[in-house]
Amino acid sequence: MTRNQLTSMLNTLYNLYRFNNSYFLAICLLCLSLGMTNPAQAEYKKPKTQTRNDAPNSQTTSIAATRGVCNLTSDSPKQKANLATFTALAPYSHVGQSSASHPTFTWYIGDRESYPIEFWLYEFDPASYDGKGKQVYQAKLPSSAGIMTHTLPKQQVGLSPGKTYVWQVAVICNPNSPSQSLVVDNQVKIVAADPTITAQLNNSQDANPVTKANIYAQAGLWYDALAEVATLPNDPQAQDFTLKLISQLAAIEQPNNSSSAENAKETKLIETHQQNLKQIVEALQTK
After folding, report:
1. pLDDT tens, 53-85?
2. Regarding beta strands 182-190 and 96-98, do their DSSP bridges make them parallel or antiparallel, or are they unpaired?
3. Contacts of 132 (CB under 8 A, 6+ apart)
4. Of the candidates 41, 3, 27, which has an alpha carbon nearest to the alpha carbon of residue 217?
5. What is the dihedral of CA 45, 50, 53, 55, to 10 degrees?
6. Cα of 82 vs its chain's centroid, Å
7. Terminal alpha carbon distance of the chain
8. Does the reported pTM lie above 0.90?
């Protein structure tokens, strides 16, 4: 083999090597870009361990008045149609769970005007006269349009694992007429922290809020999953994941098909809640 032939062969091998590595590099960059533009999909799963006490109680759950907002006269008919109903962002077909001693509660308000809000938290006791139980916390807040969150302050006594609590939010439309207030309430069950979930969170290489929310969602911890992302209104990925969680909850909310009067009431409540969630997603997507 002549020197020129050897040189030509070496150049060919080098170019082939360079081409293959460039191709491999391009594939890697494509995979990375796909991973960056497609955040984790929401995968909320109902809690695995459910008992009869983990079903909704129609005596302590409610949907806001059908008008949905306080003042319908302040908007045009077209604007009114786009105002989603005041809604608790939590399950109604089953009791949502949290492993936090100081959980975050989330709801949606369609009103563009600000109104006083009263928030209550009760230790659930179905035998109590109002079906709620002993009040353990109360707060007054100003309302703001869209998704609102409220976390039980750290200075308050934490909620106990194994217990169910009722949380209630009221928008005071007219302080002189309590009957005009919009009220929603729901239940939350506090569960002990699962060491497996804690290890997943600690070992996650990508410990951003969306990753954490997805871990909680797959573990059936609705309140913890939503708290990770709903409290970050200026984070596009977190807000995108919030919408995905709400959409998925709307899809899995299924009423009990029993024919009893009590279950008929619960069925209506769940169907209304399901429609409200869909309406909220549509309203937020068009902002």
Report:
1. 566 565 556 665 455 678 765 554 444 445 678
2. parallel
3. 60, 122, 124, 125, 166, 168, 185
4. 41
5. 40
6. 21
7. 72
8. no
